[in-house]
Amino acid sequence: MPVGRPFKKGQSGNPGGTPKDLREVIALARSHTVTAIEALAEIAGSPASPESARVSAANALLDRAWGKAKETVEISGQDGAPLGLVVTVVRPSE
Questions:
Q1: Per-domain residue ranges of the chain
Q2: Cα–Cα distances in Å, from 6 out to 11, 16, 17, 37?
Q3: Residue with the larger pLDDT of the pair 69 and 12
Q4: How many CA atoms lie less than 13 Å away from 70 in the CB half-sphere?
Q5: Please, which residues have CB within 8 angstroms of residue 60's CB and are 6 or more apart in sequence?
Q6: Which residues of 1-94 form beta strands (DSSP E)?
Q7: Who has greater pLDDT, 28 or 15?
Q8: Contact by Cβ (8 Å): 13, 7
Q9: Distance of alpha carbon 26 from its chain centroid, rounded?
């Protein structure tokens, strides 16, 4: 049995699009992009700024310029062996 109201084929789930207020907030934030980047660059290059602030500002600049580095996680069993997978199917009692 479907939960909620499933979408009809070919119909948008959000026909009204992004709410007008949100679009205005996004546009306002984007209008300050250059100022924000200049502030980050100033903090990153200022010896007077705490080291943690300089590192944080430098990371923010690099993330925005080049994208965040891909993070991978390898999960393995004991001594690097592959993990076993156990699937248990539980059927509801009638």
A1: 20-73
A2: 10, 17, 18, 42
A3: 69
A4: 2
A5: 40
A6: none
A7: 28
A8: yes
A9: 16
Q: Which residues contact 83 (CB under 8 A, 6 or more apart)?
A: 75, 76, 77
CB 40 within 8 A of CB 61: yes
DSSP string, 6-19: PPPTT--S-TT-S-
Task: Report which DSSP code applies to 29.
Answer: H
- Give the pLDDT band of residue 21 (cuts 50, 70, 90): confident
* pLDDT score for 69: 85
What pLDDT digit, counting tens, does each position of 78-93 carry?
888 888 888 999 988 7
Take residue 8 and report the two structure tokens written for it. 């009809």
Token pair for 86: 């156990």
Distance, in Å, from the CA atom of 4 to the CA atom of 9, rounded to the nearest integer, reads: 15
Phi and psi, residue 8, nearest 5°: -80, 150
